[in-house]
Structures are given as C-alpha cells and as structure tokens.
Amino acid sequence: MDENVLQDILRNLMSKQKLAVLSTQRGGQPYSNLMAFAYTEDLRHLIVATGSATRKYQNMMGDSRVSIMVDNRSNDEQDFHQATATTILGVAQPVDPQIKQHYQALYLKRHPYLDHFIASPTTQLFVITVHNYLIVSRFQDVVEYRINDEADLLS
Asked: Which of 105, 122, 135, 139 is 20 to 30 A distant from 9 in Cα terms?
C-alpha cells in the first residue's frame, strides 16, 4: 500500500480518537492504561502525560519501550467488517524542558480541558518516538508502516 495512503488512514483514525491504550511493562508483566494522546502531523511522535507517582510513569522510566493502540470500534457486529485499529510501537522519553512548550501546546490543542493537569508540577509529559504502525482493518488485514528502521521492536 502506498505510504501516503497509509499516512492518510493513520491521520484519519487518530484525529477522530481522543483516547488510546498505552501498554508498558515491568519485569515482563504488561500493564495497560487508557490515555489521552496527541500526535505530530508527520506521525513520528505521540505525546502522553501522566502523574509522576503512577505505575505507568515508573514503567516508562524503567523500560522506555511502549505500545499504543488506537481504534475506532463501536462494539457491534459491524466492527468485524469495518473497524480499524493501529498498534504503535515506539520509545517513550520524558520531554526535554527546553522543548516542553512545543509538545505541551500540541497536547493542549487537542485536550484543552486538561490544562490544570498539565500545569501540575507532578505531571510529566512524555514524547513517544514511533518506530512502527501495525494497521489492522476488517479484523484480519494487517499492514505495517515503518517510520524508523533504527530498532525492530517486534523482536
């Protein structure tokens, strides 16, 4: 499939969804959370925020590899024929204070109602550098869109 078509599918899916499932791990045990997210137009980065006292914060600080799932399911039979989901594999890092305003602005543009949460001194913004998107449609059609060949996160 053409790269531009894949990008359009991803942008369309992510623009319509405000929440995603973030998966982290510690000691081999997966841990998933529903998270508000934002993304850069080039699809190379996602932005999430969490409190510094949370398990997901500790997990990302201990092992930066993450998986994020975004989908458009409606919880009915049509999902087996029409739903699209993407699993995003990448690496999460706390946002560098020197560029925090840029990512914070992207996040708040998408989620202005979270301004007090973002302003809290205990909230940490993370930028996720995307390596792969695995796009699943019609329940079984899978296409991989690789952003960055530096690491193969599937192994």
From this structure: 105
